[in-house]
C-alpha cells in the first residue's frame, strides 16, 4: 500500500475550509486571507472591508490566544490543528500545506518550506530556513537550518532521521 505524500508546492485549500461554526484555527486563517485580499483590492470599499477583517482577526486571535500577524506570508493549506498560543513573527514565511500545533513560536525571519509539520511547543528562532517535508519534534528548539526531509528534535534540535542524521539516528 502506497501512502500519498502531501505536496510541498501545490496548496490543498480544503485544509483551510471552515466546516462548522466553531473552527477557530480555520477562522483565524480566513480572517488573515480576507484582510490581505481586501488590502490588495484597495479603494474605499477595500479599506472598509479590511477594517471588518481586522476586527474578525482580533476576535479569533483573542479566542485562540495566538498571534499571527495580518501581514504574514502564508502559503495555502495551512493547518492549525490546536490553535492555542501560536506566535508567528511578522517576517516569518510559511510554505504551502504546513501544520503548526499548539504553543509553536516562529521567532524572527523563519522560512518554512512546503509541507512542514511543527510539533507542539516547538520554538524556531531565526533567521533560519526549514526545507520541504521536514518534521520538527514537540518542544524542539531549532536555531539552525533544517534540511528538506529531515526530522529534528531536542534542545537544541538535532537531526534524528533523514538527511544529515548523525550516529545513532533513526533510519
What can you tell me about this protein's structure?
There is one protein chain. The chain is an alpha/beta fold. The protein has 2 domains: 22-64; 68-171, 3 Solenoid (UDP N-Acetylglucosamine Acyltransferase, domain 1), CATH 2.160.10.10. Helix content is 23%, strand content 22%. The protein contains 2 helices and 15 strands. The strands form 3 sheets. Strands 3-6-9-12-14-15 form a 6-stranded mixed sheet, with no helix packed on it. It has a 5-stranded parallel sheet with strand order 1-4-7-10-13, with no helix packed on it. Strand 14 and strand 15 (158-161) form a beta hairpin. Helix 1 packs antiparallel against helix 2. The longest helix has 22 residues, at 43-64. It is elongated, with a radius of gyration of 17 Å. The two termini are 20 Å apart. 37% of the residues are buried.
Q: What topology does this entry show?
A:
Layout: H1 24-41, H2 43-64, E1 67-68, E2 73-74, E3 79-80, E4 87-88, E5 93-94, E6 99-100, E7 105-107, E8 110-112, E9 117-118, E10 123-125, E11 128-130, E12 135-136, E13 141-142, E14 151-153, E15 158-161
Parallel strand pairs: 1-4, 2-5, 3-6, 4-7, 5-8, 6-9, 7-10, 8-11, 9-12, 10-13, 12-14
Antiparallel strand pairs: 14-15
Strand fraction equals 15-25%
Strand order of the largest sheet: 3-6-9-12-14-15
> Structural class of the helices, strands and pairings?
alpha/beta
Q: Determine Rg (CA atoms, Å).
A: 17 Å
Instruction: Report the average pLDDT across residues.
Output: 92
Major sheet size, sense and barrel closure:
6 strands, mixed
Number of domains: 2
- Structure summary, number of beta strands: 15
Given the C-alpha coordinates, what overall shape results? elongated
Low-confidence stretches: none
SS summary, helix count = 2
- CATH homologous superfamily label of the largest domain: Hexapeptide repeat proteins
CATH class of the largest domain: Mainly Beta
CATH topology of the largest domain: UDP N-Acetylglucosamine Acyltransferase, domain 1
Can you name the CATH architecture of the largest domain? Answer: 3 Solenoid
Distance between the termini: 20 Å
Helix and strand run: HHEEEEEEEEEEEEEEE
**Proportion of residues in helical segments:** 10-25%
